[in-house]
Amino acid sequence: MFKTMRIHYAAVVLAVLMLNTGGKALAEMDDQSKPSGPALTVAVLPFQEDENLAGAGRQTSDLLQVQLGTADGIVLVDRADINKAFAEMELGLSGTVDPSTAARIGSLVGAKVIITGSAFAMGSEATYMAKIIGVETGLTYAEAVNQSVKESVDIAARALGDKVAATLSEKGSTLIAKNMVADDFMEKYTLALKGRELPTVTVNIPEQHMNRTVPDPAAQTEISLALQQLGFPLLDPATAKKDPDITITGEAFSEYAVQNGNLITCKARVEVKAVEKKSGEIIAIDRETALAVDVSESIAGKLAIENATRKLVKRIVPKMVP
Fold first, then answer.
1. Contact indicator for 61, 45 with CB cutoff of 8 Å
2. What residues contact residue 234 under an 8 Å CB cut-off, 6+ apart?
């Protein structure tokens, strides 16, 4: 009996040590398994189906939506908002969605990723296929599951959901546009402009959000930062004692678009004009629209303007230094 008590005591000590050490390690492993970075806003559209699998398309997309709704790092767009987007675009719920259409739907519902697909049968085999489309990049991934037409749609939907969730986890970052001016662009032009005498520049782009003037314009900051990193001498338009070689002016505005849960989507438009001060020649004139999602409306508006501005920088700078 004494021997048994010693064994029990040892087991208790071992359990305590596991809680104090192994438990901590397990907690750390669990934290590491959780996705880092912002959540992906995903819209699951109704799937197409053929006459041999009547109802299977809708059932597959519904089950897929339920399954992705429990996945970490994914925020789903409400189905009612998706139906409204289809109605506004005058699309049938079974209409084919390509990358360009996905971008339009995404802008309406605030989604970064669109998932669409189809269910069809060939002989005794049924195929359930999903297309995962990046709204901002147009990049598309495809996943498919094959099974007998006699098997339940639920089985295929769960298997397809696992594949889609894995793709979003592994490749989700590639579906979203980078949040900064592309590294390859900055690297290319930093090397190209090295040693050159660059023109002095002033940047003045006022900003508004929903008819409210913003004191620290995001577009002005983004363009100024990029030009400074590339080596352009910047002058403050309010205090400069000499005229710049080039003036960059324009306007930026953002507004509320839609809200899904706690996430708020804002749209923005930025317009810019670069003028050679001495001759008055317009060097570049351009505009860009973009959207962004955040829990704060003000921050979402700022991010949307930044996203649009970063695209403009890549098109304007080459015209300033031909």
1. yes
2. 200, 201, 202, 203, 224, 227, 228
pLDDT by residue for the chain (322 residues), tens only, comes to: 434 444 343 444 334 333 344 443 333 334 433 444 557 888 888 888 888 888 888 888 888 888 888 887 888 887 777 776 666 555 544 445 666 667 677 767 778 888 988 888 888 899 999 999 888 777 889 999 999 988 988 898 889 989 999 999 888 888 886 644 455 777 788 888 888 899 999 999 999 887 677 677 899 999 999 999 889 999 998 888 899 999 999 999 999 887 766 668 888 999 999 999 999 999 999 999 988 877 788 888 898 898 899 889 989 999 998 7
CA 186 – CA 192 distance, rounded (Å): 10
Q: Say how far apart CA 310 and CA 96 lie, in whole Å.
A: 31
Taking a C-beta distance cutoff of 8 angstroms, is the pair 289, 308 a contact?
yes
The Cβ of residue 261 has, within 10 Å, a number of other Cβ atoms equal to 11
| Residues 266, 306 contacting (CB under 8 angstroms) | no
Output the pTM of the full model: 0.53
Rounded Cα–Cα distance for residues 39 and 72 (Å): 8
